[in-house]
Amino acid sequence: MAGIKGRCTLVGAILLIICIFSFCYHYTYVHYLMTEYRLLPVNINHEQRLLPVNINHEQRLLPVNIHHEKRRSVENKKKVTADGAWTMNSNGRLGNEMGEYAALYALAKLNGRPAYIVPEMHSWLAPIFKITLPHVHESVVKKIKWEYYELHDWMSEEYKNIRGKYVYFTGYPCSWTFYHHIRHEILREFTFHDFITQEANEYLEKVKGSRKNVTYIGVHVRRGDYLETMPNIWKGVVAHKGYLDKAMAYFRNKYEEPVFVVTSNGMQWCKENINNSRGDVYFSGDSNESSPGKDFSLLAHCNHTIMTIGTFGFWAGYLAGGEVIYLDNFTLPDSPFLKVFHYDAAFLPEWIGIPADLSPLLSKKN
Questions:
Q1: Is 264 exposed, middle or buried (0-12, 13-18, 19+ CB in 10 A)?
Q2: How many other CB atoms are found less than 10 A from the CB of residue 107?
Q3: pLDDT tens for residues 158-208?
Q4: 87 exposed, middle or buried (CB, 10 Å; 0-12, 13-18, 19+)?
């Protein structure tokens, strides 16, 4: 019996050694695969994203885990079917898209409804900001029987009690009156991706030079299509040289070492009309209207803002959060633009308005 027990003990020891060796081998091999081929864990959190190594400001962020993205799209379809959905049209460029997103976010929250964005809006905003509203596939958008609800540019009392399970908002809402009461949430939604913030800060540090008490002022000069649209359709004007001189003088008189970071879709005009005799003006950005993330991030990372007209400049000032100077009364009193635009709803009360020079329009009228 003693001999049998001894042999059993020996066999058990051998089996134990084999099990330990097998476990170590498989653990080492799996670790090698994950290291060599960068395998991702299956249960990746839905908020995780991997950025391209050599990403630049033109590249769009895409989720690495394609299967997870498809699964989330399916989940969104189920939620839309069960809980209903509110969404918003995707009109205009970056400034308009931000206004539409913010208005949708605020109205859905106010009325206790789930909000979703359409693919076009997602493609505008997601590459730049860490937005949280889910988006639904175009096929789902087309199949839903929406109740279309047109919004004007400012908040109205009736918007506090909107009925409907599937509501599709239309229009160009941008006014702070929709969302300023939840400003901290809107600013969180429009948090830049880290690589964009890093790029903007690196540029600002570069133009700082040897200055010790620098104050950055972002300047956005809207020209482009507005050169024709404002005088010929809206009976209005764009910013003139005198306006920019006054606005820049305000900051030059107030701060010891101001630095003006200028972006525009009419940069040549800016270089010819903005006074840079002090060497404190930097004509920045790439003026690429189809991918405006770089210009916008530079403005939003400044301390203060000089805007002219348009939603792009408005949002730059809103995100920057400092003092904002804007072009005021830039249309004639009988302008049709005033039917869709209210100055008091467009610009925050604490912002500083400088009246536009309407003499070119008045001379033409006379």
A1: buried
A2: 24
A3: 999 999 999 999 999 989 999 999 999 999 999 999 999 999 999 999 999
A4: buried
